């Protein structure tokens, strides 16, 4: 051990500065630990066995090569820099640490052009890389490294608090594949480059470590390497970005609110589960493809894949995979047995999934063709399973095309306004068996720009899934080019046809409804409508087809006008506050049921032919006799008796009459409204009866525009 004599500055190569008057040599351990603040300068080549630098002491290597060999004295590391100790390496100078055990526990600064060469150094203080040309080889970091330049060899970021920060905008900091238990980051608009030699190179092991880019212009570039780690995290904030250069891969990493960019000509490979709550963007150009690869080569911890291979990549959390608006983007699998399981991410944009090569796709999240260019799913002989929570949709004008593969839909397939979803002839839809479409939701939504859904396979004659057509410009074709109206004849058990927002139905065929049919705002015109015992029609709009009702037809939250004749043994129901207008004939075997709400209205177009039973006619409910005037009405037993203006009566059967009073008023169109109210108080009742007996004007209400004016009838029949 050769020691510095006094706490004063001086040159390393001056013998008088050392104890014994001898400059330390290759066989000596140089100790500079005097108490004080001073600088020892080395400007020529020096070689020592070990180096011990004390607190507040600076060793400035300003020229030549300063070498520390691999000798360990008394079991201590051969390089030790105490806290607040400082080793600086000037431009063009080199610090060579050839040994395997170095404990660097101080502030370590490398100026531009400086080099530290060695392996497995330990740093618990701070290392400041000076910028372009600064190089640090072989380091175990317990503290903080900042700056730009290059760190190569073996690097370990040991502690959760360990930090390597690229913070010089004009000088990126380059790291080799590393073990990261702390934080690797780019800040201040600077770049951090994690560079390997390909996907088979030594990885960056996450080990609960964080890789992040913070601030506008800051970036972390992943270049030809793998990220492994059961708890490793990628993150960006404030405009920072993670960039993929050439090939890179994620295994067991979490993309936490991060922006990850895969540029044109670059590829990101995924293994097993990716927890993605950020955004991964593929940015192809017309000539270069940005790609996302689903691969079964899932474990490279030792540089080799395991004998047992997991062939499924799961996209978890609520993140996004965004494909830029170009057809060149590609998501593909490296093997036909490999599976992309989109558990909860949103994949959107334009480009290709499969690219004509076989793979398996399971979608429980969202796949959205949102670009002006199409998104094409072509998985050849592979399978596409759209799960119960899955959505396959088109929202952009480019549309979604499923060109190949076997497709099973238990979720939602949807074409939104201005877009289209098309299943090509190369796609087999397992939901469609011999013209029966079973399971799944199939939606087309027009908002003024048209929307279409085209299914391959047989033209659908039987519906056992859910079809929703919304808006007048919504169109669904099956069998490649046959309008649904031109083929569908049956809504089977489990089926649901919904015509919404003014969407009508015009067909030369009769339709049998054994499940659910909904009409909101449009006109249903067909050769006939048959409602089975298990069938329900919920409608607001016009039913213009002859209807045989053996189930339930209900006016649903609005006005339903039935213009054709109604036969059968079922029920017509007026839902709360709705209106049912019966313009044609109504068989006596079809009951009319008022809902449990208030102010339901029944309009009868042919009052003298009406023979159905009225059920639940209650306070606030109205019967409108169209083009018919009446002078009075009363309830006698189970009969509503109506005296007509000019003579004659009408008798309607009530299933469960309620005691109350009846008010007659003109409907403004030549007919009369008969409304049931609660019974009047005794004094009012007496006055009303006296008025009616005298044949004068009614005591309650104003004259109606009809010839009969308004009249009051009072009754007290039991319910």
Folded structure, characterized:
With 719 residues, the protein is an all-beta fold. The protein is 2% helix and 53% strand. It has a 73-stranded mixed sheet that branches. β46 and β47 (436-445) form a beta hairpin. The relative contact order is 0.03.
- Determine the number of helices (DSSP H or I, runs of at least 4 residues): 1
pLDDT < 50 stretches: 71-77, 99-103, 118-122, 198-202, 298-309, 683-719
- Main beta sheet strand tally, sense and closure: 73 strands, mixed
Radius of gyration: 41 Å
Q: Shape from CA axes?
A: elongated
Give the fraction of residues assigned to helices. Answer: under 10%
Our estimate of the beta-strand percent is over 45%
Separation, N- and C-terminal Cα atoms: 115 Å
What's the number of extended β-strand segments? 73
Supply the helix-strand structural class.
mainly beta
What is the average per-residue confidence, as pLDDT, rounded to a whole number?
85
List the helices and strands and how they pair.
Blueprint: E1 2-3, E2 10-11, E3 29-32, E4 38-42, E5 46-48, E6 50-53, E7 57-61, E8 65-68, E9 79-81, E10 86-89, E11 94-97, E12 102-104, E13 107-110, E14 115-118, E15 121-123, E16 126-141, E17 144-157, E18 163-166, E19 173-175, E20 178-180, E21 183-186, E22 191-195, E23 204-205, E24 210-214, E25 219-237, E26 241-256, E27 259-263, E28 267-271, E29 273-276, E30 279-283, E31 291-294, E32 312-316, E33 320-323, E34 330-333, E35 339-342, E36 346-349, E37 351-353, E38 360-363, E39 366-369, E40 375-386, E41 391-394, E42 400-409, E43 412-415, E44 420-423, E45 427-429, E46 432-433, E47 436-445, E48 451-454, E49 462-470, E50 474-478, E51 482-483, E52 490-491, E53 496-500, E54 505-506, E55 510-513, E56 516-525, E57 528-531, E58 536-543, E59 547-549, E60 552-562, E61 566-567, E62 571-574, E63 579-582, E64 591-594, E65 601-604, E66 613-615, E67 622-625, E68 630-636, E69 639-644, E70 649-654, E71 661-666, E72 672-677, H1 682-694, E73 711-714
Parallel strand pairs: 1-3, 2-4, 3-6, 4-7, 5-8, 6-9, 7-10, 8-11, 9-12, 10-13, 11-14, 12-15, 13-16, 14-16, 15-16, 16-17, 17-18, 17-19, 17-20, 18-21, 19-22, 21-24, 22-25, 23-25, 24-25, 25-26, 26-27, 26-28, 26-29, 27-30, 28-31, 29-32, 30-33, 31-34, 32-35, 33-36, 34-37, 35-38, 36-39, 37-40, ...
Antiparallel strand pairs: 46-47, 50-51, 67-72, 68-69, 69-70, 71-72, 71-73
């Amino acid at each position: 051990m050769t020691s510095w004599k006094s706490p004063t500055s001086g040159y390393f190569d001056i013998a008088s500065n050392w104890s014994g008057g001898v400059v330390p040599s290759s066989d000596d351990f140089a100790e500079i630990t005097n108490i004080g603040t001073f600088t020892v300068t080395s400007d020529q080549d020096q070689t020592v066995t070990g180096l011990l630098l004390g607190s507040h002491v600076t060793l400035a290597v300003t020229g030549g090569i300063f070498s520390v060999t691999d000798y360990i004295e008394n079991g201590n590391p051969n390089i030790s820099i105490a806290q607040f100790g400082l080793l600086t390496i000037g431009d063009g100078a080199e610090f060579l640490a050839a040994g395997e055990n170095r404990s660097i526990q101080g502030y370590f600064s490398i100026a531009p052009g400086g080099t530290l060469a060695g392996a497995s150094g330990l740093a618990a203080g701070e290392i400041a890389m000076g910028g372009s040309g600064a190089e640090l080889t072989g380091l175990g970091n317990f503290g903080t490294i900042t700056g730009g330049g290059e760190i190569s060899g073996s690097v370990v970021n040991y502690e959760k608090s360990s930090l390597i920060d690229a913070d010089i905008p004009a000088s990126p900091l380059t790291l080799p594949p590393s073990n990261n238990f702390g934080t690797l980051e780019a800040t201040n608009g600077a770049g951090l480059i994690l560079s390997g030699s390909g996907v088979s190179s030594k990885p960056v092991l996450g080990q609960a470590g964080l890789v992040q880019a913070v601030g506008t212009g800051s970036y972390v570039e992943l270049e030809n390497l793998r990220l492994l780690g059961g708890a490793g995290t990628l993150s960006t904030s404030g405009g920072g970005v993670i960039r993929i250069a050439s090939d890179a891969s994620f295994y067991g990493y979490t993309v936490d609110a991060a922006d990850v960019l895969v540029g044109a000509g670059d590829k990101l490979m995924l293994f097993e589960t990716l927890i993605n709550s950020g955004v991964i963007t593929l940015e192809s150009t017309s000539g270069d493809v940005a790609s996302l690869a689903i691969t079964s080569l899932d474990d490279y911890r030792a540089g080799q894949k395991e004998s047992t291979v997991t062939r499924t990549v799961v996209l978890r959390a609520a993140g996004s995979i965004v494909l830029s608006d170009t057809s060149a983007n590609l998501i593909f699998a490296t093997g036909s047995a490999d599976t992309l399981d989109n558990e909860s991410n949103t994949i959107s944009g334009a480009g290709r999934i499969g690219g004509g090569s076989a793979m398996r796709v399971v979608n429980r999240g969202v796949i959205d063709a949102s670009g002006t260019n199409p998104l094409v799913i072509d998985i050849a002989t592979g399978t596409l399973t759209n799960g119960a929570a899955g959505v396959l949709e088109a929202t952009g004008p480019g549309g979604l095309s499923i060109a190949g593969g076997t497709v099973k839909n238990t979720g939602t397939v949807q074409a939104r306004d201005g877009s289209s979803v098309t299943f090509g002839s190369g796609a087999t839809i397992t939901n469609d068996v011999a013209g029966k479409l079973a399971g799944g939701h199939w939606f087309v939504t027009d908002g003024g720009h048209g929307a279409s859904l085209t299914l391959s396979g047989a033209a659908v004659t039987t519906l056992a899934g859910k079809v929703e057509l919304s808006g007048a410009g919504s169109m669904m074709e099956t069998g490649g080019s046959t309008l649904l109206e031109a083929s569908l004849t049956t809504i089977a058990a489990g089926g649901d046809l919904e015509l919404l927002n003014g969407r009508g139905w015009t067909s030369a065929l009769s339709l049998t409804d054994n499940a659910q049919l909904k009409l909101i705002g449009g006109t249903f015109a067909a050769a006939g409508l048959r409602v089975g015992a298990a069938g329900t029609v919920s409608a607001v709009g016009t039913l213009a087809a002859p209807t045989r009702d053996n189930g339930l037809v209900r006016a649903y939250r609005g006005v339903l006008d039935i213009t054709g004749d109604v036969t059968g043994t079922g029920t017509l129901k007026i839902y709360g506050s709705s209106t049912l207008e019966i313009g044609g004939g109504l068989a006596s075997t079809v009951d009319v049921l008022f809902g449990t709400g208030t102010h339901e209205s029944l309009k009868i177009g042919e009052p003298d032919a009406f023979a159905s039973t009225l059920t639940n006619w209650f306070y606030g409910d109205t019967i409108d006799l169209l083009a018919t005037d009446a002078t009075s009405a009363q309830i006698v037993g189970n009969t509503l008796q109506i005296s007509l203006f000019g003579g004659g009566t009408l008798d309607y059967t009530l299933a469960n009459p309620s005691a109350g009073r009846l008010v007659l008023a003109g409907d403004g169109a030549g007919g009369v409204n008969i409304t049931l109210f609660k019974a009047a108080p005794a004094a009012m009742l007496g006055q009303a009866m006296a008025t009616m007996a005298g044949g004068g004007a009614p005591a309650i209400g104003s004259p109606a525009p009809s010839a009969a004016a308004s009249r009051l009838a009072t009754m007290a029949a039991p319910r």
